[in-house]
Amino acid sequence: SFQGKTALLLLLLVFLTLVLVLVLTEVRSQNFEDFKLKHIFDGESPDHLDCNTRMRLVIGKFSYVNRDRNTFITNPPRSTVLTDVKNICMNGALKKDNGQYTSTKAFLIVDCILEVNLQTQTVYQNGTPQMKSIKVGCENGFPVHFHG
């Protein structure tokens, strides 16, 4: 009947709205600890970054099926990297663009890039380390999203 279909569509709309709210809440609920795990490499050198090992940690913690790319910020020693990345959000002289803050200093970054090999398994390859400024999204004075 028409009323039954209308009620079903209304119920479906309410359900989809709840799912959307939950997804948006999950995206917004990242914190600096999550950001560090996803994007800060605390090794001594980018040469020691093993993308396969590191991406297994990220995928396991955040329940990703696979990510096609993930960027790690690495400038030894770690304390300098953490301080410098946090300062992106706290330094009033930095340019803010659509809620994203751009660093005034260059960071050494490494991309882990997904390469699917059907004969063996999914493998992440280390990209070439490069120096560049980065953009982050900040909440409460801390970086929580990496924008490139």
TrEMBL record:
The keyword Signal applies. This is Ribonuclease A-domain domain-containing protein. Keywords: Signal. SMART domains: RNAse_Pc. One of its GO terms (biological process) is defense response to Gram-positive bacterium. Pfam families: RnaseA (PF00074). Gene3D superfamilies: Ribonuclease A-like domain. Residues 1-29 form the signal peptide. PANTHER family: RIBONUCLEASE. Residues 28-148 form the Ribonuclease A-domain domain. Belongs to the pancreatic ribonuclease family. GO terms for molecular function: nucleic acid binding; RNA nuclease activity.
